[in-house]
TrEMBL record:
Pfam families assigned to the protein according to its UniProt record, in alphabetical order: YtzH
Protein name, as recorded: YtzH-like protein
Length: 92
């Protein structure tokens, strides 16, 4: 069963919320966010206005995947995480 873009946005929001709440995460979560964002970026059903947000989340995921201190990376992005979660809520 494939996920539609709404399901993908919910999963993306869940991962971001976990990063925000727990101030920690895993490389696997960063990789999952990358896959979700890539899929959403090519989906014509996704609002063009959210694609900038998705680009920012993709960059965050890439940086997180390659950092040696993922928890510190997540802590440094707490404000952005809050903003992204709020923006996803507006589009969902």
């Amino acid at each position: 069963m494939s996920l539609n873009h709404t399901d993908q946005m919910h999963i993306l929001k869940d991962i971001l919320t976990n990063h925000q709440d727990d101030c920690s995460g895993t490389v696997a979560e960063c990789e999952q966010m990358e896959r979700l964002v890539k899929s959403l970026m090519v989906n014509s059903n996704v609002d063009q206005d959210i694609k900038t947000l998705l680009t920012d989340i993709y960059s965050y995921s890439q940086q997180g995947k390659y950092t040696q201190h993922l928890d510190a990376h997540i802590n440094e992005h707490q404000d952005q995480l809050s903003q992204w979660i709020s923006e996803i809520d507006q589009f969902s």
